[in-house]
Amino acid sequence: MSKFSILREFWDFLRVRKKWWLLPIAVLLVALGVLLATSANSPLAPFIYSLF
For the chain, how are helix, strand and coil distributed in percent, rounded to 5? Predict the structure, then answer.
């Protein structure tokens, strides 16, 4: 199995089931997760956490 099989499966689900409204939610969750993961050990963490 490839590393990106989950992305391919999710894309196929969206395309076949016509659930396009799930795409912005998934993108937002991934972006928020990346932001929190990268800012956890960053000197900018106090400034980023104050936004929330």
Answer: 70, 0, 30
Residue 4: what are its φ and ψ, rounded to 5°?
Answer: -100, 20
Residue partners of 19: CB distance under 8 A and separation at least 6: 13
What's the predicted TM-score (pTM) here? 0.62
Q: Each residue of 22-32: pLDDT tens digit?
A: 999 999 999 98
Q: How far apart are the first and last CA of the chain?
A: 38
**Amino acid of residue 13:** F
Q: Find out whether 10 and 26 touch, Cβ atoms under 8 Å.
A: yes
- Select from 2, 28, 22, 1 the least CA-distant residue to 10: 22
